[in-house]
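G., the chain you wanted modeled:
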Amino acid sequence: MAGRNISPDVQTFNVLVDMLCKQGMLKEAEEVLELMIQRGVEPDVFTYNALMNGYCLHGKVDVGRRVLELMIQRRVLPDVFTYNALMNGYCLLKRVDEARRVLELMTQSGVEPDVVTYNSLMNVYCLLGKVDVGRRVLELMIQRRVLPDVVTYNALMNGYCLLGQVDEAMRVLELMITRGVEPNVVTYNTLMNGYCLLGKVDEARRVLEVMTQRGVQPDVVTYNSLMNGYCFLGKVDKARRVLGFMTCQGCQPDVFSYNILINGYSKEGRLKEAIELFQKVEENGCILNNYTYNIILQGFLQNSETAKAVELLKVMVDGGSTVIGCNKNLLVNLLSDDRLDHLLKESNSNIFSSVGDFKPSIRSSALSVQYPTLFSVQPMEYISSEMLFYLGTFEE
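Predicted structure as tokens:
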């Protein structure tokens, strides 16, 4: 454009800033903002909103707050999207008090909160187990004539389900239908997950029947929840039939589907079947993730399959996977195995080669130093509520 003597306008720059922020290229987005100012193109509210949203979605909410201060300093009036982005950032980090202060600030500034504003606040309260406060947020919305939507009710239902209060969640479902809000697949998935976490798989199946009768198409999360419920009860064969059924229905299993089943087989001591399924995952178009490896590793370690555990560790290190949960303790026990050195020589593995014949405690410490990523702790606190039941399948 510059070569043709065409100067980019604010809309052109905004598209670029928004694209960079969505891709997590925040430094580059900042540079575009500086270039705009240098060229005399004044950033508008959309520019700052895109930048703030990018920072907040990537956990840099304090930088996002400074963007708000900068836009006010440059006399660009924040709108509801500005405050919503900042509130969402605080809520993702569970910094509820600061999120509430943003709500107060926006009302003081004459910006009316919308349904997205209240949904962010309600969701974080419910995830923190403060469902009563979430309920008060719902009442506040109604008082201020902000109509709750399906996301509002789903968040509240999820809060009750996480507390094991599925009957209350059912009452919220009845309430939303009464108020003319149509349940979606997330609504029914939330209920099914709530029942499955309590081991009430029959009730979860009835929810599945109701959702199909109401014309709501089950998705992979729906079937995964049911599979997880069966595995929780030790009914792995029924879970396997669910996998076959979902495939027949045209619903493609994901890596979590296989993780649930692999873990179910492993817990039942059916390690051979777990390994067979493990080997089929990538053949079926899914990419193995860290949990897949750890589930199989746990099976090897608990069944004293030391040689196989060492070989798998080698693959994990090469692929950048990490050891999580109780596998760390099981691995320390492996390090004290007298047969370990012989097994390592047979496998030509260099995983522990630099630590020689030290005592197990020293050897395990050295392993952590040599391969820090293998023992790193993965951040899990911001995982979506629909996926919480997957974490329940893996022993900590």
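The two ends are 56 Å apart (CA to CA).

Shout if anything looks off.
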